[in-house]
Amino acid sequence: MSGVPVLEVENVGRVYKRGGFFGGHSFKAVDDVSFTLPETPQVFSIVGESGSGKTTLARMVLRLVEPTTGTIRLMGKPLNGKESIDNLAFRRLVQPIFQNPFEAFSAYLPIEAYLTRTALNLKVARNESQARESADVALRSVGLSYERIRGKYIRQFSGGELQRISVARALIPNPKLIVADEPVSMVDASLRMSIVNLFRQIVTEKGVSFIYITHDLSTAYYLSDHVAIMNTGRVVEQGAPGDILANPGEAYTRELMAAIPTIGARWAELDEIDRRYAHERTRDGKSAGKHQQNHF
Amino acid sequence: MITVDTVTVGYGTTAFVKAVDAVTLTINDNEILGIAGESGSGKSTLMRAIYGDFSTGLRIAGGTVTGRFEDERTGVVTEAQSRDFGKLWWDQISYIPQGSMSVLNPLMRVEKQVVDGLPKREREGDRAALRARIAKFLEGFGLHESVLDAYPHQLSGGMRQRVLVAIAAFVNPRLILADEPTTALDVVVQKKILLMMVEIQRRLRNSLVLVSHDLGVHYQITDRLAVMHRGKIVEMGPTAEIFANPKHEYTQTLIASLPRIDGERREARA
């Protein structure tokens, strides 16, 4: 145990210029964001809507986008600048999982190639047979095996299975951190929880931390140790999910919570609409007047 | 309104792939009917068969889809089979697809696309008056007239979808079919659009069919619900009853699989 945090994000910002070579205006996609993932493996969720900056933040952690201001340190080493961590070491420590598994994999390559190539590229394996071996180990930890996926192409898998394979691929270098950007939004509802539970299992069994980027407050609540709510580039609120949702300090968090289509609690606005049209229609779904016919 | 009688739908001619298997279903006047199910359950195929869109190689191998549309302004009753529904599109039947970008022409301003799609009866009078009427209608849903002058890419995804929903309602159709209309959107925008769809249905007292894999959405806005699994309807009834007492095992699984912000959590800390 080194005592070094897995990830430190300090006053990070990202500005994009819009229009004009000299003129135009700048736009802060991410604005002065700070948080820390401690050494203890955990799930850190970043919740926000389109345009909140959550994906830009994830891309900065993945070193796909360079911050305009601030510092990101991985295991104590800066991601950018002169003293920055080298690429191979970086990619062994941090791995991504993307939103759409049908786009993440090519339709023309057998799926196992993604795992064996990752093993070879990251120098986890020195030859094909070692690569197959490490692919199999990774696949077994997500409930699959090399034998089961060998020779198949993406269209032969469901979205849920492909996301499991994405997780297996990410696990190949035994990373410290996995950054998952909306990993279950393309997956069927009944399979979502099995993927989310898989993340939890990997945190426990493999000691990997997750940054879970989502617009879905309910899976974030279920899964995470820590939740940060983002709006217009800033983290407006962060803390333990139970605390934040029991006692949301920000109006924006309350708005997000109120917009979830929860089973068991009907939106108040619907009753308002029904009241407005009550003279034409009763709540039990039966219509009144001349429109009642045609129930054939 | 619409009677779907033991209809079997699939794709292909030489090798027929069955997607909807002998489904029977009635769409009543003045109701929001939900169709729930996961990818591959056949819900979108059923929807296309009801819409009468056979352009994708869709084929009805058995059974019938019959419609009876009564125009309340003229009192004219139209009866038809789904293969003839094409004549009623954007007239008696409107369709709201999932991806607003894939149905809007990127090279054309919104106004032209809207006007081109309108049935003859709506296009009477001069263009300026028609535009004013459309603008007034959009305003009723909090959409500014300027969206008519925009190209689709200049609007956000949520805005485009709201425009599509408003346009689908503008022709005062008796049947609106919506296939996953909010799936790609954030919850706050989704709520706005769902409330808008409910308001439209209550105002027009027509029939709205909503296909969604999200049971929370069905719980919120549908009056009746059909749950599809592997091409068949496994359970159908008033939405409140299904959620209070789901009878089929598959429905129970679907309901139980949803996380809730007031529900249990996985133990924090590894």
UniProtKB/TrEMBL annotation, chain B:
Gene3D superfamilies: P-loop containing nucleotide triphosphate hydrolases (3.40.50.300). InterPro entries: AAA+_ATPase, ABC_transporter-like_ATP-bd, ABC_transporter-like_CS, Oligopep_ABC_C, P-loop_NTPase. It comes from the Bacteria. It is a peripheral membrane protein. Keywords: ATP-binding, Nucleotide-binding, Transport. PANTHER family: MALTOSE ABC TRANSPORTER, ATP-BINDING PROTEIN, OLIGOPEPTIDE/DIPEPTIDE ABC TRANSPORTER, ATPASE SUBUNIT. This is Peptide ABC transporter ATPase. It comes from Devosia geojensis. The lineage of its organism: Bacteria, Pseudomonadati, Pseudomonadota, Alphaproteobacteria, Hyphomicrobiales.
